[in-house]
Amino acid sequence: LPGGGVSRRLCSRRVSLEGINKPVVDRIIRVDHAGEYGASRIYAGQMAVLGRSSVGPIIQQMWDQEKAHLKKFNELVVAYRVRPTVLLPFWNVAGFVLGAGSALLGKKGAMACTVAVEESISNHYNNQIRTLMEEDPEKYKELLQTIKQFRDDELEHHDIGLEHDAEAAPVYSVLKTAIQLGCKAAIFLSERI
Question: What is the topology classification, in CATH, of domain 22-191?
Fold first, then answer.
């Protein structure tokens, strides 16, 4: 649906909410749904600028994985009856602008953005994995498997960015720090709003 909305037809399977820590699960699914939506929009922005360049197929491959991640979180939003963040329209625009803006710096700029975002997200996923393991690894087995797989995909994207000269981008350390501060703010807000 437009704006990352969720259709109830995406997933007919509902999860039993009995015995789960609903506030923790809601926060995790809400923020991960928002993050995967934002990541998809970042890659859309990069493709708009660099889609026909030599790095276009690499960006497309990462974007396709992000779209699959978003599809899964769309399903989890319905299955666990989680209200998505109200900030999706903002992440729609902000993600695209970040992706296109970093791509305007060239391939290295786009890859620097990828490294910064994917490092932030993989660290965030690791924190969630720790939280769910402390809660009850058996109770949250399916959610843990999803988060672990997506974390591994994000780490792969991070490494692809490094392999494609992210660190040679203009003002790399400033760009990375600024993007990661933005990611922290986005995570904080999307968990709560």
Answer: Ferritin (1.20.1260)
- Cα–Cα distance for residue pair 56/59, rounded to 1 Å: 5
What the block records as the tokens of 81 is: 């009856």
What is the pTM assigned to this prediction? 0.91
Task: Work out the angle at residue 40's Cα, subtended by the Cα atoms of residues 108 and 182, and round it to the nearest 5 degrees.
Answer: 65
Phi first, then psi: what are they for 23, rounded to 5°?
-60, -40
Q: How many helices (H) and strands (E) does the chain have?
A: 6, 0
pLDDT mean values, one per 10 residues, the chain (193 residues): 48 72 97 98 98 98 98 97 97 98 98 98 98 95 97 98 97 97 97 93
Write out the two tokens for 137: 């690894």
User: How far from the centroid of its chain's Cα atoms is residue 8's Cα?
Assistant: 21
Q: Where are the beta strands (DSSP E) in 14-78?
A: none
The full 3-state SS of 120-149, as one line of letters, equals HHHHHHHHHHHHHHHHCCCCCHHHHHHHHH
Distance of CA 190 to the CA centre of its chain: 12
